[in-house]
Amino acid sequence: MSKCIVLVPSAPYSDESEAFLRSLLAEAPDLLSVVGPYAGSWEDGVDWLCVRLEVRENTEAFCSTTAHIDDRLEDVVAFANQWCELKGWQHDVRVVRT
């Protein structure tokens, strides 16, 4: 399990994506950054799913999210590595593609 996940989705977020997103959140990342043209819809999906999990399922599902629509993957990974460094963790970034 990684403290920081960089997600590279191949399609916009949809209801069918929820099970996959739940599996990522089950890892309890501190940061979930989404990169690419679908970043905005996935970031919204993460935020709303976390709220639903907190309210309806009484689970603690929280992570910071960032959307990087026009940024390069390398730059987002560097950002996530800096996040880990500022938190005092070793670089613990995992890139996940859908």
Taken as a percent bin, the fraction of beta residues is 15-25%
Measured between the Cα atoms of the first and last residue, the distance is 17 Å
Number of strands: 4
Radius of gyration: 13 Å
**Fraction of residues in helix:** 40-55%
The multimeric state of the shown protein is: single chain
| Mean pLDDT across all amino acids | 91
Polypeptide structure, described:
This protein is α/β, with parallel strands linked by helices. It has three helices and four strands; from the N terminus they run βαβαβαβ. The chain has helices spanning 18-25, 39-56, 73-87, and strands at residues 4-8, 31-35, 64-68, 93-97. It has a four-stranded parallel beta sheet with strand order 3-2-1-4. α1 (18-25) packs across α2. The radius of gyration is 13 Å and the shape is globular. The two termini are 17 Å apart. The model has no long low-confidence stretch (mean pLDDT 91).
Chain-wise SSE layout:
Blueprint lengths: L3 E5 L9 H8 L5 E5 L3 H18 L7 E5 L4 H15 L5 E5 L1
Parallel strand pairs: 1-2, 1-4, 2-3
Helix pairs in contact: 1-2
